[in-house]
Predict the structure.
Amino acid sequence: MTASLIARAAFRTALVLTGVAFVTLVVLLPLATVFEEAFRKGWSYFAEAVSEPDAVASIRLTLIVAAIAVPLNVIFGVAAAWAIAKFEFRGKGVLIALIDLPFSVSPVVSGLIYVLLYGAHGWFGPELQAMGVKVIFSVVGIVLATVFVTFPFVARELIPLMQEQGTQEEEAAITLGASGWRTFFSVTLPNIKWGLLYGVLLCNARAMGEFGAVSVVSGHIRGQTNTMPLHVEILYNDYDIAGAFAVASLLAGLALVTLIAKLGLEWRYGGELAAARKH
Amino acid sequence: MAANLPQPANTDADRLMTLTIDGITRRFGATAALNGASLSVPEGSFLALLGPSGSGKTTLLRILGGLDAADSGAVTFLGEDWLSLSPQQRRAGFVFQNYALFRHMTVAKNVGFGLSVRPWRTRPSRAEISRRVEELLSLVQLEGLGGRYPSQLSGGQRQRVALARALAIEPRLLLLDEPFGALDAKVRKDLRRWLRDLHERTGVTTIFVTHDQEEALDLADIVAVMNKGRIEQAASPRALFDHPETSFVAEFIGGAARFDGEVRAGRFAGGGLSAPAEMVDGPAAAFVRPHDWEIAEVGGLSVRVLNVLDAGPVVRLDCRSEQGLLLEVVLAHGAAEAIQRGQTLHVAARTARVFPR
């Protein structure tokens, strides 16, 4: 072994150690703290904190919001990806940029846009109020804000995958007599299912965890318009640290489940997903 | 094969029995992929669309299959206004260059796809579909591979799956895009012969796209030579070879050397070549095929031999004329003894085809 090889090995070790230390400090330690704090006062306190009515209401609301926002974004995302990947049309670049918009805009701004549009003093607020529809400080607003923030996940995952696959299989199906719908369900959908599942996972994780945009439109009405992240903040502000961390640990648990499912997908369908990650 | 030359459809009966392509144009932005392509061939023909890349042959095939729309022009086939039919109504089997097999389906599902997507009233029963699939797999010599996935097959096997899938819908027209392009030479030869047999058995009007003229001349009844979005000439291989109608066909078929010059008083002169020409005076191009050269007794074109390929019954010489034109000269073995690389040779054209420029 020459001196330069030893130096390189040492450098490599140092690099790896730095990386591990950084990840431990920034990711693992906080995550561990969440669970440690959650169970600091014991199992019974944890169970009480997550089963108390306001907590249950926030969990229920979070699930409802995700149950509406995720399917909507699956439909929007597949439609947008289909249009962008398989057709040529004017304004395609604009559409791609629009899909990325929620990623580049601060979530707080996203929330404020909805207040500006649908709030009591917003552009459409008075008309909506006259019709008896309440968007801001209600579930409707929370769903809208969540849909906006999580819109890119499915589309971004599918566009490169669908572009890579091209249109020949669909064309083959058409010449064999399949209708457009039949072609979509028999040929297109099976080819993108793993990428789609991956996108749904990410979309779902974000839908349940979104704070900024939802915080602006929700109004923080306990038991009514509080999602889990908002409930965590309220408990924390009330100095119920253990309670806050108990609910937070549920969210962290969701993140871990997502992560494991994601790793599982990558391990099983690495090749297909690699096409998506290249871009 | 002169009987296979396309004839204009005169009577209604003829028209019913003819595939007529009339003035098809298709533009992509500023470029015209097809620029008034016209062609008429009898039903049951085995037609090759031959041309260099960018000549519009694949675009024409896609329009016939309903995968692309013509900007103008008409196609009549089996007595129907073909272009007004949806792809589903056309029942045109299409074999893609890269096969486009459904990667998530087994071979059997791929082949049976066209049957299983039929509307329920005309859809065969599941047992009937699997019987038909077995039949087709044995037709393409892939018995027992129905359970495999496309990724587990070789190129030649995939090609045959693609064919079986297209044949499953009992196509009225079979369209193949560069069907042998991605295969090695041996497999290509076998599949060619097999496709020829298949056409003889089924009699389905078959059109394939190729840029390989040997393949086109070897396989098709009628070869349509395409250039710049038009069909230059459609004829039997023999007629195409012996009677090229345009300068493009004369140059493209048979690897002819091109001489630019002029015709004066019934004689072409240019590039060092002199040959009789039955046309009016004016700028012209003459084409001489490699086999149409002979050693000149007197005069002739003076060429320098760059390379000698002496194998088999003929000797192939790569030559350069004094004017700098590269040409291939093929001589009978006996006529070319003792020709050396670097030597200067005088050759004369037995046949030169002259076209106005």
Observations:
- The CA atoms of residues 32 and 217 of chain B lie 27 Å apart.
- Confidence is low (pLDDT under 50) at residues 1-9 of chain B.
- The first strand of chain B starts at residue 18 and ends at 28.
- Chain B touches chain A at residues 65-67, 87-88, 91-94, 96, 98, 100-105, 113-114, 117-118, 165-166, 168-169 (CB under 8 Å).
